[in-house]
Amino acid sequence: MTRISVAALATVSFVALSALTGCSAAVGENCAPDGAASKGITVSPELGTEPTVEFGDPLTVSSTERTVVTAGSGDVVDSGDTVKMHFALYNGTTGDYIEASNFLEGGETAFPVDTAATQFVGIAKVLNCTTVGSRVVGVIPNAEGFGESAVDAGLGAEDVLVIVADVVSIVPAPLAEATGEVVAPVDGFPAVEYVDGTVTVDVDTAAVPTEFALETLIKGAGEVVADGATVVVNYHGVNMNTGVVFDSSFDRGTPATFNVNQVIQGFHDAIVGQTIGSRVVVIIPADLGYGDEGSGDLIAGGDTLLFVVDILGLS
């Protein structure tokens, strides 16, 4: 018997121990069924700890199979949801360990569940129809796993992927606009008007600030944005030196999704620590923006920027 035993990186609060026998998985459209391969894998049941996994001969499947190890009592995951999960991946053909998330509270991985995806659709099928709070094990043929990227991931072209996933939560769908408690504007900030999705800012180009400043116009009641989070926002950017709008997702009609550590420092500092649903206005001096180099034709070196930002959700 091949034995894969990965030492736990951490132990956090978890549900009471359940029997190692697999629970019956819900079956419906794009819900991966129980199968001989997935039911033949023994997985430790404790959510919040990196699993110990045992299986025998090299696994073979022609389509994705799923078995519930520990059944949760939360909402059912559906295609189109984004879930937060802990996971561990193994090569079901060779028995080799591939990788795992850290299984620390707050260190979950966000995964968009799309059963029509062209890559990793097998993972989506394992998660789809699963209830929040569950630990599931899935066996995935390469065609529904890494596909052409299998070799880069250390798998052979026909190797089978095994995933153990702890489904921690379903990420709430992004808001359409900022929603929460209206907060009085801060003296000295440019006036901001929001009407039917259009943002207008009254900028005085004769009195350009050079210090970072932040105001909240709407205080949302949602989750706090953590450092390193991936957020969904609408934003409206104005060059305070020229009064020109240089970029606006509000005007495009499509929110932007990005990691807070992949934007200019001033934008990062404005978002981290805020709550979902908030609308903030941030003034960003050049040293926290685009510095002496500027960016493109609309932001020169040394320019101060202003952003109006609706923080709509996490991804």
Q: What is the CATH class of the largest domain?
A: Alpha Beta
Which structural category do the helix and sheet elements fall into? Answer: mainly beta
* Assembly classification: single chain
Uncertain segments are: 1-27
As a whole number of angstroms, the C-alpha radius of gyration is 24 Å
> Per CATH, which architecture of the largest domain?
Roll
Order of helices and strands: EHEEEEEEHEEEEEEEEHEHEE
Number of strands: 18
The average pLDDT is 89
Beta-strand residue percentage: 25-35%
Notes on the structure:
The protein has 315 residues and is mainly β. The chain has helices at residues 36-39, 121-127, 249-252, 265-271; strands at residues 2-5, 42-43, 52-55, 65-70, 82-91, 97-100, 109-112, 135-140, 161-170, 180-182, 191-195, 198-202, 213-220, 230-239, 245-248, 256-259, 279-284, 305-314. The chain folds into 2 domains: 2-170, Chitinase A, domain 3 (Roll); 180-314, Chitinase A, domain 3. It is 7% helix and 33% strand. Strands 10, 13, 14, 15, 16, 17 and 18 form a 7-stranded antiparallel beta sheet that branches. Strands 4, 5, 6, 7, 8 and 9 form a 6-stranded antiparallel beta sheet that branches. Strands 1-3-2 form a 3-stranded antiparallel beta sheet, with no helix packed on it.
